Amino acid sequence: MIRTPLRPLARVLQAREKGENPDLIERENRRLRQEAARDHARSRAETRLLALALLFVCAFVVLGARMGLLAATAPIEVSRGVIEDISSARADIVDRNGRVLASNMATHALYAETRRMVAPEHAARELARIFPDVDADRMTARFTDPNRRFIWIRSRLSPEQMQAVHDIGEPGLLFAPREMRVYPNGRIAAHILGGASYGQQGVRAAEVIGVAGTELYFEDRLRDPDLIDEPLRLSLDLSVQAAVTEVLEGGKRMLNARGATAVVMDVQTGEVISLVSLPDFDPNNRPPPPTEGEPADSPLFNRAVQGYYELGSVMKTFAVAQALDEGEVTPASKIDTRGPLTWGRFRIRDFRNYGPELSVKDVMVKSSNIGTARIMQPIGAERQQEFLRKFGLLSSMPLELAEAGRARPLLPDRWSELSVMTISYGHGMSTSPLALAAGYSALVNGGYRVTPTLLRQDQVQPGERLISERASEQIKLMLHQVVQEGTASFARIPGYPVGGKTGSADKPNPQGGGYKENAVLATFASVFPSHEPRYTLIVTLDEPVDTTGPEPRRTAGWTAVPVSAEITRRIAPLLGLRPGSVSAAEAALAAAQ
Predict the structure, then answer these.
(1) Contact in structure between 155 and 131 (CB atoms under 8 Å)
(2) Among 60, 150, 197, 520, which one is least packed by beta carbons within 10 Å?
(3) 131 SS3 class
(4) What is d(CA 519, CA 507) in angstroms, rounded to the nearest whole number?
(5) Is the link from the previous residue into 340 a cis peptide, with omega within 30 of 0?
(6) Domains delineated in the chain
(7) Which ranges constitute the DSSP H helices of 72-189?
(8) Residue 362 to residue 330: CA distance in whole angstroms
(9) Which of 244, 263, 234 is nearest to 571 (CA)?
(10) Which residues contact residue 310 at a Cβ distance below 8 angstroms, ignoring those fewer than 6 apart?
(11) Mean pLDDT, rounded, for 426-451
(12) Residue 447: strand, helix, or coil
């Protein structure tokens, strides 16, 4: 930078020649230099202010844009330092007619942040007043523990409880929104639905997971994001389920039974229309698993699926069906029923003396153990096993329940000739009521295999043929005659012809071996209408006793049959079946024969 001299020599000389004062030249140059310096400083300050202003404007633009982006984006919650990514969405479950069996409902959980609490002792006392299961002293200790900063108190709150907690006025008590699984029908279909609980939990969401039944079996389907809006449709009919539950519960109470179960199945599709096991529970408040006692006494135990029992004379139908199908006998064939039937040190007896011989039809109608055993003797163990295996009675019966595959039938270690005879009338081998329902459905639907299902079926897909149509027609007639002439006379219902077979089996003694005294498992396996079966109904009562007569009566004809008859009378109209005459049914059966 070139500085201009304050007293340039040329100008000083010119001023002296003209007689002017040279000092004026210095003052003028000093003033010009100061003005130039001032202008330069002002320009530099203005540039700095402009740059600073631009910087502030840019910062405000960036912050505003970020705030707008956050406002338009779904919130990401932080719980105890972990970013939550929890989905509580779950599809509804409905019955075959679209009525809701299970759904989600918005609720709140309650938690505490102890660092925000003002009066922890007062809050603990008030919480104990609102929630009787909360211990005030223990809660106070948790609130005042310096090592605790976050405490879950309740996973679900009712609106009334939430308001009561809000009225405490404690800033450290906070509410966490979440969804809960709700079963609007309470105990109805409890063993089918199973129940749900919370899995992974965060402050703003909780994972809803199935713990049993269809909720657990269809876990992936119910939580699939692409299928959340599409309900899972079951084969269950809610009206039928409610009616069966009511009648079965009344029968269990009246007959002082330890437990009871009933299965209603479509004989063509295998759809389970109703499945009831008593005692039951409310899936909205599922009880904990038992830690002692017999598993079957727990309300969580599904007797229809998990219970494998010696079911007694209901198994005679399979023995007679095999003999008819393989041509060993005809309904009119005479069978030696003189007793007792001796095999080694074992003796097989009938409930009463039926004479020296009975026809195959009367063996079924009168439920002769000796007659059934003699029918099976020439068939033998190998053929008997193969026949029962075709019907699925020697393995777990598949069903869309998490518990279905866990139980197995009890089979003899050595399938001897004695086993052939005892199994023919329902002792020495166990099976489940569900498997029995599937087996009877196959016996009367023309002889086609039936696979039980809890999903509604829009089309009938016949399974493998198990017995001939001729044998199936003969079995239908015999089942009808059991009701009209034999041990199931209480199953007669005006307008609804019923066919079926009773079974009264002594209960094994798990402690000392052998069988319990005066402990019977009573079963009635029925089909209706008997001339053109549409549905199978299995009713089983655990240790029932009818005390209305002079002596206690425990057999199925006095216990399970009347209960089954009342169920049929109640549900037949609900299933769309019109009343008809028994004589018309008998004419149709005779024509088929």
Answers:
(1) no
(2) 60
(3) coil
(4) 6
(5) yes
(6) 86-233 (3.90.1310.10), 240-592 (3.40.710.10)
(7) 120-130, 136-143, 159-168
(8) 12
(9) 244
(10) 426, 427, 428, 429, 430, 505, 506, 507, 508, 521
(11) 93
(12) coil
**Sign (positive or negative) of CA dihedral 285, 288, 292, 294:** positive
DSSP letter, residue 490: G
Confidence (pLDDT) at 585: 56
Q: What is the mean pLDDT of residues 381-394?
A: 93
Q: What is the pLDDT of residues 483-536, one digit of tens each?
A: 999 889 999 998 899 999 999 988 887 766 677 888 889 999 999 998 899 999
Dump pLDDT digits (tens) for 462-475.
788 999 999 999 99
Distance (Å) of CA 528 to CA 277, 413, 432, 498, 565? 21, 37, 21, 5, 11
Task: Look at residue 77 and tell me whether its pLDDT is greater than 80.
Answer: no
Q: Report residue 482's pLDDT band, with 50, 70 and 90 as the boundaries.
A: very high
State the amino acid at position 201 in one-letter form.
Q
Phi, psi of 262 (to 5 degrees): -145, 140
Q: Alpha helices, DSSP H only, in 19-108? A: 23-71
Length of the chain: 593
In angstroms, the CA 574 to CA 528 distance is 13
Taking the CB of residue 185, how many other CB atoms lie within 10 A of it?
20
Contact between 557 and 485 under an 8 Å Cβ cutoff? The reply is no
Q: Decide if 245 contacts 187 (C-beta within 8 A).
A: yes
* Spatial contact of 343 and 418, defined as CB atoms under 8 Å apart: yes
Distance CA 548, CA 545 (A): 9
What is the C-alpha separation between 211 and 386, in angstroms, rounded? Answer: 36
Nearest-angstrom CA–CA distance, 184 and 161: 20
Q: Are strands 195-201 and 206-212 parallel, antiparallel or unpaired?
A: antiparallel
Q: Do 524 and 486 meet the contact criterion of CB atoms below 8 Å apart?
A: no
SS (H, E, C) 409-424: CCCCCCCCHHHHHHHH
Q: What is the spatial distance between Cα 54 and Cα 52, in angstroms, rounded to a whole number?
A: 5
CA 272 to chain centre: 14
| Tens-place pLDDT, residues 282-324 | 999 899 888 777 778 889 999 999 999 989 999 999 999 999 9
Q: CA–CA separation, 331 vs 335, rounded Å? A: 10
How many Cβ atoms sit within 10 Å of the Cβ of residue 253? 11
Query: Cβ distance 88 to 207 under 8 Å?
Result: yes
